[in-house]
Amino acid sequence: MDRQLLEWKLEADRLWSAADPDFRAAERLAADVARASEDPQLRRSATLALPSLRSASLEDADIGSKELAWQRVGAMRDVLHARDAPRFGKRGDAPTSLTLPDRHRQMLGLPLGRRLSGPEIHQAYKRAAKKAHPDGGGTERKFQELSAARDALMKEK
Questions:
Q1: Interior CA angle at 29 toward 36 and 52, to 5°?
Q2: What's the CA angle centered on 88, arms 83 and 91, to 5 degrees?
Q3: What is the largest CA-CA distance in the chain?
Q4: Quick one: how many helices (H) and strands (E) in the chain?
Q5: Is 1.10.287.110 the CATH classification of the domain at 100-156?
Q6: What was the pLDDT predicted at 20?
Q7: Helix, strand or coil for residue 137?
Q8: Domain boundaries, the chain
Q9: What is the pLDDT along the chain (157 residues), one digit of tens a residue?
Q10: What is the DSSP string of 18-58?
Q11: C-alpha dist (Å) from residue 2 to 6, 37, 57
Q12: Is 113 left (phi over 0), alpha (psi -120 to 50) or beta?
């Protein structure tokens, strides 16, 4: 199944990066995923995408149905990639034995158990902030948590 998952991810990425959306190829991919996937979340996202992709692949499809279909392809692609992505920062995934400063270090991607310099903390913050900022695809809450982690580590050093 891992090989099949990798093939689906590659096909989804190829479709996503194409200049013009190929709704027929996306429909075939979604049908294959909906039929053969063992993951209920992945199967659900593919099943939800199928009707939209079928209507978008018609000759007289309007722009709204094409946009909806493309959003569904994006959602299916996100679920595909989330299956083996690291789950840092998700509630319940972090070990409960970490102290607050260690969790701050983990949020910024800094090593545990050694002294940190100010520039090192700032550089790690900038790197993490690019992903956590709302303009970069993150959420306002995540960005604020990241800023609080940076401030706490800077006071600690």
A1: 110
A2: 95
A3: 63
A4: 7, 0
A5: yes
A6: 85
A7: coil
A8: 2-82, 100-156
A9: 578 888 988 898 888 888 888 999 999 999 999 999 888 898 999 999 999 999 998 888 898 888 998 899 888 888 888 877 666 655 555 445 678 888 898 889 888 878 889 999 999 999 999 988 988 888 999 999 999 999 999 998 6
A10: SSS--HHHHHHHHHHHHHH---HHHHHHHHHHHHHHHHHTS
A11: 6, 11, 29
A12: left
Cα distance between residue 2 and residue 8, in whole Å: 10
Tokens 């299956």, residue?
A: 83
CA–CA gap between residue 66 and residue 56 (Å, rounded)? 5
Cα torsion 112, 113, 118, 119 to 10°: value is: -60
Please state the length of the chain.
157
pTM for this prediction:
0.54
Asked whether the beta carbons of 74 and 93 are under 8 A apart, the reply is no
